[in-house]
Design brief:
Strand content: 15-25%
Number of helices: 6
Distance between the termini: 72 Å
Oligomer: single chain
Helix content: 40-55%
């Protein structure tokens, strides 16, 4: 705004800038062509990312359809919940989207609630947020096994498995009929 020489147009632009976007301020100051070209460029960039993600989702669905989870990928918690380790999610994301094309970014500060560490993470693919989820892990300051850093990594992995539900990965782990059948067929209850 400081580059606008005409004081009246600069005042108009500052007023608009305070109430709207920077592009709107440029339009009010008479720099509409520049603002519109910036908007068009950003829109084109977003369209290209959307097209790439659509291709990636198609690849993910095709790959996932041809590569159903193997029995050995499933595990069971002592509480009886069926799950798939975060390493299998990471491997599949790497195969479909490529190494370095996906990642988790922190959305909020780590929350310590009682014995749990909780943080929301956003799953990013090719720079676009595709899902978010909270991850949690138990932590005890006196534990030698689960340090705070280990608990934070565990919470991050927990968030990844939850965020991948939006991509359709291992949805069966949240399907009651699947988990009931899995436990009945492959598990032994220990009392």
């Amino acid at each position: 705004l400081a580059k606008i020489a005409d004081p009246e147009k600069r005042a108009q632009a500052e007023a608009v800038f305070n109430d709207a976007t920077a592009a709107d301020a440029l339009v009010a100051a008479g720099a509409g062509a520049l603002a519109q070209s910036d908007i068009n460029r950003r829109y084109t960039d977003l369209q290209a990312k959307e097209e790439q993600l659509n291709e990636d989702y198609t690849k993910l669905n095709e790959w996932y359809t041809g590569n159903k989870a193997k029995l050995e990928e499933y595990d069971i918690l002592p509480t009886g919940e069926v799950y798939v380790s975060h390493s299998h999610y990471r491997r599949r994301l790497g195969i479909v989207f490529g190494p370095g094309s996906w990642g988790l970014t922190k959305r909020e500060a780590m929350d310590k609630t009682g014995r749990a560490l909780i943080r929301e993470w956003v799953l990013m693919i090719r720079g676009v947020a595709v899902s978010s989820a909270k991850g949690e892990a138990e932590f005890s300051a006196s534990s030698t096994h689960m340090t705070e850093a280990t608990a934070e990594e565990s919470a991050k992995s927990n968030a990844l498995t939850r965020a991948c539900k939006d991509l359709g990965m291992f949805l069966e782990c949240w399907d009651r009929s699947f988990t009931d059948n899995f436990r009945a067929e492959y598990c032994v209850k220990v009392l």
